[in-house]
Structure formats: structure tokens, C-alpha cells
Amino acid sequence: MSFLSLSKHRKNPVNYVVWFLSGLLLTILVSCASPQANADGSIEFWTMQLQPQFTPYFNDLNQRFESENPDNKIQWVDVPWNAMESKILTAVSAQNAPDVVNLNPDFASQLASRNAWLNLDEKISPEVKSEYLSKIWDANKIEICQAENQCETTTFGIPWYLTTTITVYNKDLFEKAGITNPPQTYEDLAIAAEKIKNTTGKYAFFIPLVTTDSNEILQSLVKMGVTLLDDQGKAGFNTPEGIKAFTYWADLYQKGLLPPEVMTQGHRHAIELYQAGELGLVGTGAEFLKTIANNAPTVYEVSGVAPQVTGSTKKKNVSVMNLVIPKDSKNIDGAVNYALFVTNGENQLKFTQEANVLPSHNSSIEQYIRNLENDPNKDILTEARRISAVQLEDAEVLIPPVKNINELKKIIHENLQSAMLKEKTVEQAVTDAENQWNNL
Length: 440
Known about the structure:
Number of domains: 2
CATH architecture of the largest domain: 3-Layer(aba) Sandwich
Oligomer: single chain
């Protein structure tokens, strides 16, 4: 499995004892570290599961960097995606971390809160920052508190490549249901769900409630105007908007417009249902169309693409991969220089062409869209990629990079399930979720 399929890379809730001990160890080690520069100018760079597919790309990239920076030598280490978290935690704890690491903001923020990463605000100028998509850059910021009333916002990562979800829909099912256009909002989605179920007996869509699976429920709440957490990190969702969002999902389930498996199956099941022609639409990456073409050619022939479904806010979600620099890097200046080289406009554009992902650099995304619009061999995949890129204008990381975010997801999912199953009223479910989070 390639780590480039970002929607599949999710972690299970972390054991609190392990994290407490790890955090204590990191606090001690980071505070005592006094890094010495690498004598040979080497820069150790860790990526997640990019070999062997992208080995030629990185060999060329690193050779070009070394020719421009003869005092530096890149040592590239590729780590299996499911081993990265444990490996980087161990390396940082032992003061043996690489100089540049490829992570996502979710996990990187866990160590950022322990002051493990270099504060890039001290090393990167505002002019260079402005070259990146502003909302994506902001996804790599976190507030770190050394003591009460002693907090500061720091930048812990440089944006690299991105993916956004698009809607892939079955035009045949939509036509049978009398639906002309794919849904753009959750209100449209509820209407489509009822029409498709009444005319075809099939479901319009699938959203997993499994607590260890995707963040789709949390993302939907934010799109509907819900504030997950307030400025103090307390629950911000016990509001009219939060109650309305909980009610939306509870009503759909109780009307039989969501498959019952949403309680027990993950996003993979939605993919399976769509490929079997049993689902009206699915939210996924543009590259999923290749899988449909291979696994279900008849469904592929009747598939269309559209922007991802959103709510009253018009917000759209984006998945981000970044580069972080451990605070105890032995070659901080070289590491920053290399990370900016990897993520500059020219190199981001080259990588997106190799990997079919999206760049986070302003100049790169503009050229990427122009290339797609001028492609003489336009097809549904080209259009899917264009939509994926264009919607970056409204896209941001909707789930805040905060400690215990998986616990928040678990609390919201479990209480929403109770409301859907009529074990609690919506109001009680929202209140219980608020209290459980605030009492952590």
C-alpha cells in the first residue's frame, strides 16, 4: 500500500500510559539537547513508503541538491508508513532523529506539543511562507504552552503534497432517480438519498461511524458550521449548529437512508458498494477512478465526477503531507535549506506529475491546473484531477491539530451512534459528548 493514498492512513487511538511516558522522556531529552553540527554536512531524510516507485525521482532530486550544495550529502531513508510513528518517536526520544522527516500534521502535532520540532518561524522568512497556500501553511501551526499564560503559536512543518476528496457518482442511478445534478451540499445529499432509495432501493452514500476509521463525520460537522473546540480546547459543539448536525445524521439513519453497516464498517466498504453498483456516490481521491476502471469497468463507464459535498460554510477538506525538522537535528541550517528545496515550486510540480497528487506551492498549483486544462487527451480522470486542484481555493485541514484528537472522534462517534439508535435524544448525546471531552 502506498502512503500516497492519504485517506487510508489513519492511526488507532494511542495508549495513554505509553504517550505519558513518551512525553515525559521527550520533555527531558529535548530540554537537555544541545545538538552539534554533522561534521560531514550530511542530511538524513526520512520519507514514508515512497520506494521503489519514486526512487528515480529522489535520486535525481538529491543529486541536484548536492551539486548546488557541495558541503551537504543526502542520506535518504524510506520507512514503511505503518512503522513511521513508532520509529520517529523512538528516534526523537533517543536524540537520534533524522534531520528532515515526512509526516502528516495530525501525528506531527502530537510531537509538536512536546516541543520536539524546530520552530520554523525562526528560520523561514514571511516572503518564503507566502509562496505556499496560506490555509495549508496554517495547518502546520500549533499553540505550545510552557506554563499557564505562557503560550505561543509556532510553525512545525513545511507543506509538501496534498490530496482533496472529490465526488464520484453513478450517473445511471442518478438518472433512474430523476436527479439531474450531483449534490453539492448536505441538504442536496439528503434529498438525493431519499430519491435514490425510493426509486432504486439502493443507498445514495455511506459514511462510516467506526471510531478507528476516517474523519468524515468530524469533517461534516465543521462543513456544517460546527466549532469542534473553542480557543481553550474545550468542546465547542454544544450549540444550535452542533445539534442540527447531529440531528441531520440521526434522521438519515432512522429513515433508513444510510446502510446499517455504517456502524461497523469503514470507508473501504463504501468503495466496495460503489464498485458493485449498490451506492449512488462515494467521496474519494481522483486516482480511485483507475481502480474502478480495473475492478468494475461497467460502473466506470457510467461514473461522473464533481466537487466534494460541503455545507453552509462552503469549506472543503484537504489532506496534507509535510516536512518537519527535529529540534535536535545536527544540521539545522542544512535541513531547512533541503526541506525548502524539496518543496519549492519547481520540485513540487515535478513530484505531482510523478505521483498524481497536488502541490502546496502557489506557482505549482497554477501551472498544474493550466497543464490539465491544456491536456489534448482529456478524459474523466483529467477532469477529476482538475476538480481536485481547483477546489483547493476553498480547502483547508478541517480537523485541528490538537492533542487527543482521536479521543474526540471516539466521543463524538459513540454519542452520535447512540442518537442514531434512539438510545439518547440528540440533545443528550451532544451534552454527554461535551462533558466527556471536557472531563478528559
